[in-house]
Here is the input.
Amino acid sequence: MAPDQHKTRKPVQKRGIETRGKILDAAMRLFSKKGFHSTNTKEIAREAGVATGSFYAYFKDKKSVFLEIYKGISHKQLKDMAGGMAGVEGQDDTGRVEALLRALAGEHGFSPNFQREVSAMRYSDPDVEALHNSIHEGLGQEVALMLEKQKERLRVKDLDAAAFVILCACEEVIHTSRTISHRIDRDRVISNLADMIARFLYK
Amino acid sequence: MAPDQHKTRKPVQKRGIETRGKILDAAMRLFSKKGFHSTNTKEIAREAGVATGSFYAYFKDKKSVFLEIYKGISHKQLKDMAGGMAGVEGQDDTGRVEALLRALAGEHGFSPNFQREVSAMRYSDPDVEALHNSIHEGLGQEVALMLEKQKERLRVKDLDAAAFVILCACEEVIHTSRTISHRIDRDRVISNLADMIARFLYK
Amino acid sequence: MAPDQHKTRKPVQKRGIETRGKILDAAMRLFSKKGFHSTNTKEIAREAGVATGSFYAYFKDKKSVFLEIYKGISHKQLKDMAGGMAGVEGQDDTGRVEALLRALAGEHGFSPNFQREVSAMRYSDPDVEALHNSIHEGLGQEVALMLEKQKERLRVKDLDAAAFVILCACEEVIHTSRTISHRIDRDRVISNLADMIARFLYK
Amino acid sequence: MAPDQHKTRKPVQKRGIETRGKILDAAMRLFSKKGFHSTNTKEIAREAGVATGSFYAYFKDKKSVFLEIYKGISHKQLKDMAGGMAGVEGQDDTGRVEALLRALAGEHGFSPNFQREVSAMRYSDPDVEALHNSIHEGLGQEVALMLEKQKERLRVKDLDAAAFVILCACEEVIHTSRTISHRIDRDRVISNLADMIARFLYK
DNA sequence: AATGAATGAGCGTTCATTCAT
DNA sequence: TATGAATGAACGCTCATTCAT
Here is the structure.
């Protein structure tokens, strides 16, 4: 009995698996539309077309659904990222960086509204923070690995730190330029970001 | 009566002004220690040494206190920033950037726990988001202004976009390196960040 | 802050004291009529003519009201008992025992239905059990004290143990003969009980 | 179909009888360990190694299992009592009474924790109360019968009432001295009780 | 102006029981 | 027959806000 499974039901029948999925989908939709705190478990159950009790049969509480959704999204995104980076080799420096940015932007493009909630909860809930940090670290290693492959073309030496800095910069730029109603348009921001990173990385 | 003043009391006497201040201080302390959602108005009143009713005599609701505290902090910090940047001129490129970073890091150094709450609410509350964005824009203009002064030494042309990108990078790096229990130490991160920005900005 | 006061309001105004009393009265009525488990806090509040929140302003939870009512009743009853026993002196042996029985029967006569609930909860809740035991012990000491006063007429030597045994016998007889729809009528039971105790105690 | 059989399955095959027994055993274990209200039907089914639905195939509801267990225990205990009393004859008065007490104490010795639950529910549930009363009456008749056999040695005349009073006294003493953390030790209590009953009964 | 008592909608959660497979 | 998924009313409790004094 894993400690994070508590007393939740582990579906063995096909119907149970479907129900669990319906709840996850519904929660994802509502968290994205209304935010975590403004969504209650009864709503999630209704949206999923199941009874309140079924929610608690499959999940310990509201937060555990949130974390599970986040985990699921992250897995998909790490794979996407890896895929996106594969195509980076064999281009010039700027192309490489832009591809990287696209891959990273894809991360949030997946489900921007849910990511927004993650950002909120990351600062107010220790569990979400821990999960976010571990995912962030995973991304950082992915980027560091990619840098490693083109080491001889780089001017930076401390690849881990460089990866971390790049990642942070991208995250915040993408987040902020998404939410802000901006007089500075997105293209100018992205091209400056790409320029900054390229100058930083390459000889 | 301005619409955002609701039915709150506007203190003109010394006693009223003090009471208002005590409430703001108490709220600031509690929001920083326990977070916005885990702090209730009764607690704030008790911590301030006033009655629950008095809280609502001076403030429309819990959120309005939060916003007001945030505004107050931002004003102080914009001034600090301006002061911090004044000393930037007359050094070499790297020194300039590091001074800038120190000035920005100072922003969060002021009241890091409250900033954490701002980060959380920024993503979950439209009003906090709006305020954050306008403050961010103010900071951006400040930075853009500083860049303007040393235009001839810069390789970047689009100063507004550059300022925005720099600002975002700094914010996230500072935030994340604060919360993460890191295998990459802070100094390496900061020096990489400074290097990145300097290469980006200067010829 | 006493540990059993939790975060409850301690009424300082007259209105508050009244409200607290109304809640206690309502709870007593409902516990007696429907039992502890079949009474919920909303009902108590409604019966008391106050809001749910007020209930929780004055009491930590449902059980704490129960315990407080029980405590209050016990205090009154210990006083009644003491009074009832005062008149015991100066009669013959049988008269003394019957007076004692009347005094003890009076204990449950006060609020028999509530006592019934106490009996139920005494076996299912540790806190109620502890309170019951301490009250029982108090009663035992009272009885032992009364025996002490007429020591020379008694054949029993171990007054504490004797008091305990008498008390238990009386309690259960009174309880059971109350609830049972009996073919043995109450008078026969009481007179046998009195006979038993008198033979036991006196030379 | 008897009205109290509801729609429950009446097992005739060996397998069904075993399943029914497993449920009764599991329920007995859990009621004893955690109490009736803190044990839920899912737990009982799991402990018994059957599905939730099977529980309701064999029993009308949770309470009916409780009643059935209680009935079963009582039957065994009545037999034990009868056996225990058989050896009472041919001793002196005190010996007789002590044998009786041992036989009665044996009643609770069987499954003291379950008895505790019975005591709790006896006061809060009419059905349990009725069952308890009828069992109590059975015990009373048993005791009265035993008294009948030694009538010529007794000073009491109303054997039914005497049996009732004795029984009550024993029950409560045994119960209370079990739960109370006592400054009066058990031996003193028991010997006083035996003394009281012997003086009461015998010439 | 100030107090603190009162409000009550709303929340997360449980579990005895039923039902589809 | 046996399974275990599904149900949903009901519960205890919180707290931002209002109101009587």
